[in-house]
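Hi R.,

Here's the chain you asked about this morning:
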Amino acid sequence: FVSVHHLEGHCLSARLAQRQAFWASQTWTTEAFRPPDAAIEPLDELGFPFLSLLVSGGHTQLTLVEGVGRYVVLGGTLDDALGEAYDKAARYLGLPVGGGGGPALEAAARDGDPSAIELPTPLQKKPNLDFSYAGLKNAFRLAVEDRRRSLGLADSDELPRQDVADLAASFQSVALGHIEDRLHRAMVLCEQQWGVTSLAVVGGVAANQELKRRLVNLCASRGDPSVRESEFRREAKRRQNRERKRRRRERREGQADEGLEGADNEGGLVPNFVFDPSVHQAWKLFVPPPRLCRDNGVMIAWAALEKIYSGYLDDASDVTLRPRWPLGDMWVQQEDS
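And here is the predicted structure, written out as tokens:
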């Protein structure tokens, strides 16, 4: 007997998708999910450790997958998940949601202007790795209601097609921008602390083509020296400020250090923090085909196989059922990080 966490199945499904057998049949061809000019290598081995972005109807979560059965949750959903927010937004617009609100809203957004409606960016002032869509969802509902009032529409009237497209595009732009912001922070953290340069995107919303396009660009940008140097300078400044605060605190406590003033260059307060463009590289992006992204028994079976081959066995008579079982250890953000 092997116990498998549902989210564990999602995370490890990206490794299953790299097996040759799945790409040998038409059911699993890359053309079914590859966005234009995507830098996705379907037959590259996805080794440990890697960063997993889970985006589904019930979860939006960043997880460091160190190995089979070894997970560190970097950030998760504080309220509404991305998939749930997509579903609600599609309903507000009166879109058909029989096949899921996400695909319907994504289709409508293709003909819209993403800057047509101003919507709030979630957690903009919170430098952590968590996600929140409740505020955006409510702001979008109010924007739809305001637009309907301005047009003098009755409850039974449909919004004009272009208004639907503009509203959908505006919502999608902010919703995915929130993903990009949190993911970017997680990628920097993973590079610095664990040397990770592989990203697996799993869950039902991973089929969203606009999300894939943005993540392809984000992964490629990690190898751009100009982008990385700009990041380095911001990080160096942050570390300098933190070191100044520490020294001032010591000074107030009677433990003053010499040389606080005048150490303003990047090598002064943090002498070992030096930018080296040669060590930076683009990330590899792994996205399973849509059929493997949704909840399915195959991903659970595959996770069980991975655990068996790794030596995991459980006692079926000693399994405690918990409605919210944590996937792994929670990452604790350091002060001022």
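One quick note: The chain has a mean pLDDT of 83.

Cheers,
M.
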